[in-house]
Design a protein that fits this description.
Blueprint: E1 4-13, H1 16-40, E2 53-59, E3 63-66, H2 79-84, E4 88-91, E5 98-101, E6 105-111, H3 121-137, E7 144-146, E8 149-154, E9 163-173, E10 176-184, E11 204-205, H4 208-212, H5 218-232, E12 235-239
Parallel strand pairs: 1-2, 1-12, 3-4, 9-11
Antiparallel strand pairs: 2-6, 3-5, 6-10, 7-8, 8-9, 9-10
Helix pairs in contact: 3-5
Length: 245
């Protein structure tokens, strides 16, 4: 199978709402193209449709986001306390529960037309996990999976030592994806003290910095993510200068 070409852009530090709106714009462009093709030619082949894939990386100012199946009781701060700490909050249309995004955390948003990869959301999630597992392995960190819990974990099978290093939550419309993953690199972990991360009690969160006992080069970590996503998804990232608006 030929490699899928994927338009890549590093959005840098961007507020959560702007990044969400940009993703929605890209997703709706692709969904509209597919809907029109289906209307005019019910027998069209998805592989022949001129849809595009996008892969966005960014950092967000401090923000808590709640998935559509999440529970507000997992947010341990009041609205007033959030404002006092200068932390934003959003209800989102992704899967999953509550999570945190902030500086020195790699947030990745793949907007992929999965009909050109495979129509299997479970496989898509596992492949995202695998790309992150390979990336942290380059730092000597052994990541893995926790049964029934999406994301990348360390010591998932050792009760009391389980800790999550990357969260994943997605939305899919007509097999077009948005939202994605958040990998803690040199993230300030104290922000997680004010939520029950992903709604999972009695389990910790961690970062590459916390595991190694030192900060790592953030740009280097992003390059590892890019390279391993290319490998796992059998794709080629093509740098873009398109405007994120």
């Amino acid at each position: 199978m030929d490699k899928q070409h994927v338009t890549f852009k590093d959005l840098g530090i961007i507020d959560y709402r702007s990044a969400w709106d940009f993703q929605e714009k890209l997703l709706q462009q692709t969904v509209s193209l597919k809907s029109e093709a289906r209307r005019t030619d019910p027998g069209y082949l998805p592989s022949e449709l001129a849809t595009e894939h996008f892969f966005l990386l960014c950092e967000h100012p401090p923000v808590y986001t709640l998935g559509k199946s999440g529970h507000m009781e997992n947010v341990l701060l009041s609205e007033t306390e959030l404002q006092a700490r200068n932390i934003s909050f959003f209800n989102t249309n992704r899967g999953g529960d509550i999570t945190f995004h902030g500086p020195q955390q790699i947030v990745g948003y793949p907007i992929f037309d999965l009909e050109k990869f495979y129509t299997d959301i479970g496989k898509y999630l596992r492949n995202m996990e695998e790309a992150i597992i390979l990336s942290i392995a380059e730092y000597g960190i052994e990541g893995g999976r926790s049964v029934g819990e999406t994301g990348v974990w360390i010591d998932a099978g050792t009760k009391g030592k389980e800790r999550k290093i990357a969260a994943i939550g997605v939305r899919c419309s007509r097999w077009v994806t948005m939202h994605g993953f958040a990998l803690n690199v040199n993230t300030d972990m104290s922000y997680f003290d004010h939520i029950i991360p992903c709604g999972i009690v009695n389990k910790q969160v961690t970062s590459i910095e916390k595991e190694l006992g030192r900060k790592v080069d953030f740009e280097e970590a992003k390059e590892k993510i890019k390279r391993n996503f290319e490998k796992i998804f059998h794709m080629k990232l093509v740098e873009s200068v398109f405007a994120n608006k």
